[in-house]
Amino acid sequence: EKGIECKKVFFRYNKKANTYAMKNIDVFFPSNCMTAVIGKSGAGKSTLVDLLMGLNRPERGEILLDGIQLTERNLHSLRRSISYVPQDPFLFNTTVRENLSLIQPNASEDQLWDALRFAAADDFVKRLPQGLDTLIGDRGIRLSGGERQRLVLARAILREPTILVLDEATSALDSENETNIQEALEKLKGKMTIIIIAHRLSTIRNADQVIVLDKGEIIQQGEFRDLAKEQ
Ligand code: ADP
Ligand code: ADP
């Protein structure tokens, strides 16, 4: 089956210590499915994401992409297929176009607009006086936090990833901006594996699967409805 999977994954930052940041993690993130990973600060969310992106390697256990075990040799294929959206959107003080085409320099005009419309509400697109050549930041228009994050999301989906990771990507946004991003993600659902790391329940209400981490272990796994009932 297509997707990314952790099989009995263990990980320690300090090989001499007894504390595991990941303990026996068994989880499957199906493609075409939105999975939310929640848990308190220090629960292991970032550690899990780093392992899934191949930035850290499991100490024991394995990670499989579409059933194929990740090794040092095929890690590059994983990295090519992942787009990562962090909490703090990283943008250059240049044009919208340059920020979008940073990773996909050969993207066509249509692809750039499609990605932008996909991730950005139309009011944001309309607000760009010179279209894609509008300067942002100190030299151009100032973007709100939500607009910045939608621009970063547009850039992330331009790569046509098979896995999209949002790491607390809407944590700093107000609920209206968060809803805008959620609507964009709703449209992406079914097209790629979406992994959302979050701490607010409202952020993950559209998830098909929710995983709750605590002290490096999965303490709950199920549908949002079932988890929400227990909270
Ligand atoms: P979360 O993302 O859920 O806040 P983390 O994955 O960052 O949790 O952290 C899980 C555990 O691993 C915590 O105990 C944290 O202190 C520890 N940890 C995280 N990063 C490092 C690191 N670079 N070196 C040592 N310990 C770390
Ligand atoms: P910093 O706190 O260092 O400014 P930011 O991530 O906020 O970090 O900013 C990174 C870059 O983006 C900076 O060069 C800044 O000028 C620019 N920038 C910051 N806020 C905005 C904004 N609302 N709209 C457009 N550009 C911004």
Shape: globular
CA gyration radius, whole angstroms: 18 Å
Instruction: Record the strand order, biggest sheet.
Output: 6-7-8-3-9-10
- The share of residues in helices is 25-40%
Tell me the β content.
25-35%
User: What is the string of SSEs from the N terminus onward?
Assistant: EEEHEEHEHHHHEHEEEH
Biggest sheet statistics:
6 strands, mixed
How many strand elements?
A: 10
Q: What's the rounded overall pLDDT mean?
A: 92
Unreliable runs, pLDDT <50, ≥5 residues?
none
The structure class reads alpha/beta
The CA-CA distance between the termini, in Å, is: 32 Å
Number of helices: 8
Ligand kinds: adenosine-5'-diphosphate
GO molecular function: ATP binding
Organism: Siminovitchia sediminis
Keywords: ATP-binding, Membrane, Nucleotide-binding, Transmembrane, Transmembrane helix
Domain ABC transporter: 4-231
Please give a quick description of this structure.
With 231 residues, the chain is α/β, with parallel strands linked by helices. Helix content is 31%, strand content 25%.
Q: What report would you give on this structure?
A:
The protein is of the alpha/beta class and 231 residues long. Helices cover 31% and strands 25% of the residues. The chain is built from eight helices and ten strands. The chain has a six-stranded mixed β-sheet, sandwiched between helices. It has a four-stranded antiparallel β-sheet with strand order 2-1-4-5, with helices on one face. The two termini are 32 Å apart. The mean pLDDT is 92. One adenosine-5'-diphosphate (ADP) binds next to loops. Keywords: ATP-binding, Membrane, Nucleotide-binding, Transmembrane, Transmembrane helix. It is found in: Cell membrane. This is ABC transporter ATP-binding protein. One of its GO terms (molecular function) is ATP binding.
